[in-house]
Amino acid sequence: MTKKGLIIINLGSPESYSKADVKTYLDEFLMDEKVIDVPWLLRQIIVKGFITPFRASKSAEAYKTVWTERGSPLKFITDDFKSLLQQKTDMPVAVAMRYGKPSPADALRELEGNGGPLDEILIAPMYPHYAMSSYETALDYVKDYILSVRKEIKLRVFKPFYNEPAYIKALANSIKPHLDKQAFDTILFSYHGLPVRHLKKSDPTKKHCYATGDCCEVKSIAWQTCYKHQVKDTTRLVAEELNLDRSKMILAFQSRLAGDKWLQPYTDVYLEELPKEGKKKILVICPAFVVDCLETLEEINIRGRESFMHNDGEVYEYAPCLNTSPEWVDTFASYCNEYEGKYSSLWN
Fold first, then answer.
1. pLDDT value at residue 283
2. Which residue, among 128, 160, 166, 170, has the nearest Cα to 319 in the 3D structure?
3. 3-class SS string, the chain
4. Which residues of the chain are under the pLDDT cut of 50?
5. Do 170 and 130 share a structural domain?
6. pLDDT digits (tens, 9 = 90+) for 288-305
7. Please, are residues 141 and 104 in contact by the beta-carbon 8 Å criterion?
8. Total domain count for the chain?
9. What distance in Å separates the CA atoms of residue 107 and residue 96, rounded to the nearest whole number?
């Protein structure tokens, strides 16, 4: 009988909100060549000479605002999700983080701790959309480690699930209670930003992304790795599921670094300007994440709220990520349990 295990991957978090721990985390994160994709020496100068010395204190303060008695929300929510998922599958489940702990080595030890070496491992990055700086780097990090110590093991990889119907339904159902509470002037879908060059670099054709103004609507193999197309597709499908008024919808991008051309429009600009335009009641959704984290809890639900209300906004509603919602746990368990059947097309 084939012995199987499942590793779910998320981004990671500092060990604490101390400046030292946050600096360690930022150094590891920003020195990833798939995050800041410039030659190593230049990356070293940019990250350790300019970014982390000045950003560590500010980031530490941001983490402090969302830290709980259980630590980082991203870490403990991911752990809770894993525990709930374990109740719905017979294979052992472990968590690996791309940066920080637990590492791929920790995850493999946990999976093989009781039953010995596995024959097959399912690897599931918890990213709905493909990006080299999230999905790709996390997947490669875990795969490379496992294959370095288990050369003969079979690996199956969960693809980006941005347009998978059961995921769309779970996401839409998590948003619906907020729509039922209040009428909104604006429904803002805020996705994590990316440098435009990342999209071009990920384009396998090297001639589709940004070649025309409507490239995301022109069918291409590039869609398989095009973050912008995929987030637009998620937004469209959720809108259809909820029968949203398209005239009230905005898609924007958050969490950018200075000094480069990033995907636009920008979430923070909208949050400042919308109330001035008379759009004072807003619902904000962050579908790039399935687990609430610094970017959703601090950037959107604290700083974004403050900006909107400071500029004469009246209602600011944030719809939390899927986190550990029962429908999402059931959906994800089905993806994993039926990876050779109904959901085989979602797995490489």
1. 98
2. 170
3. CCCEEEEEEEEECCCCCCHHHHHHHHHHHHCCCCCCCCCHHHHHHHHHHHHHHHHHHHHHHHHHHHCECCECHHHHHHHHHHHHHHCCCCCCEEEEEEECCCCHHHHHHHHHCCCCCCCEEEEEECCCCCCHHHHHHHHHHHHHHHHHHCCCCEEEEECCCCCCHHHHHHHHHHHHHHHHHCCCCEEEEEEECCEHHHHHHHCCCCCCCCCCCCHHHCCCHHHHHCHHHHHHHHHHHHHHHHCCCHHHEEEEEECCCCCCCECCCEHHHHHHHHHHHCCCEEEEECCCCCCCCHHHHHHHHHHHHHHHHHCCCCEEEEECCCCCCHHHHHHHHHHHHCCCCCCHHHEC
4. none
5. no
6. 999 999 999 999 999 999
7. yes
8. 2
9. 6
The pTM assigned to this predicted structure is 0.94
Whichever domain contains 338, its CATH number is 3.40.50.1400
| Domain ranges, residue 29 | 4-161+326-346
Q: Give yes or no for a cis peptide into 265 (omega within 30° of 0).
A: yes
Do 199 and 172 have their domain in common?
yes
